[in-house]
Amino acid sequence: MAMAMARRRLLALASQLQRRAPAPPATQPWRRARPRFLSSAASAPLDRLKTPPFARPAPRNPASSPWDRFGGGQKRTMFIQTQSTPNPQSLMFYPGKPVMEVGSSDFPNARTAMTSPLAKALFAIDGVTRVFFGSDFVTVTKSEETSWDYLKPEVFAAIMDFYSSGQPLFLDSNAAAAMDTAIHEDDSEIVAMIKELLETRIRPAVQDDGGDIEYRGFDLETGIVKLKMQGACSGCPSSSVTLKSGIENMLMHYVPEVKGVEQELDGDEEAELAGAGQIE
Fold first, then answer.
1. Strands of 260-263's sheet, edge to edge?
2. How many CA atoms lie within 13 A of 100 on its CB side?
3. pLDDT tens, 101-142?
4. How far is CA 164 from CA 74, 95, 109, 183, in A?
5. Residue 63 DSSP SS3
6. Radius of gyration of the chain (CA)
7. What's this model's pTM, rounded to 2 decimal places?
């Protein structure tokens, strides 16, 4: 009987101890325990994704531009247009700004271009054989073996660089323009009429084709007017037709003393036209 009483007391004591033990904390379903496999040691390899080459690139600066490499982030705003000429080897470039304030200027070779920074830069391009300046355009003549696909970007760059540099078109202002058609006091009435026709009627039409003409003289005895073709008109296959059918007919119509027109050529031009079969 004593043993039964002791057993009941032990059971009662165990029941009391069980009731006093603190209940385990309730788990919060919205808080997920950290998985054992993502310990600090195990997650170290994943940190490499935060470093190059896996890291996200830095945000691009909106102020930066591909044009920055052309000079301090300033864009080239110059727009150059081109126009074909009757001469397939010549092309007119319109920079959208005045070129020659008065008259025109022709550069048949690199030696004559030393007085003009723009002409000198254009002749530095491989394949350029002649440069001509008009009132608002630049005519560039190339060699036959050179492609315009290669040459045009080079000419664009040379013209843009010149206008952005602020340099004068001519280093010597006295050599800026040839005043070949200026009427002088000692000019005869016939010469004055020829010059006026060249300046007002003939020259504008020729300049529309990227070239010009230069008055070289008039022989009263033979009635021959001597002219020099410039720019795209020099070496053009149709220049002889223009000279005879257009200029000669107009001068003979308005000035009866004129009996014909002859084209004066430089040494290089004679060799070029002779090679092309235009002169004998």
1. 211-219, 224-231, 260-263
2. 21
3. 887 888 888 888 888 999 999 999 999 999 999 889 999 999
4. 11, 12, 25, 37
5. coil
6. 44
7. 0.57
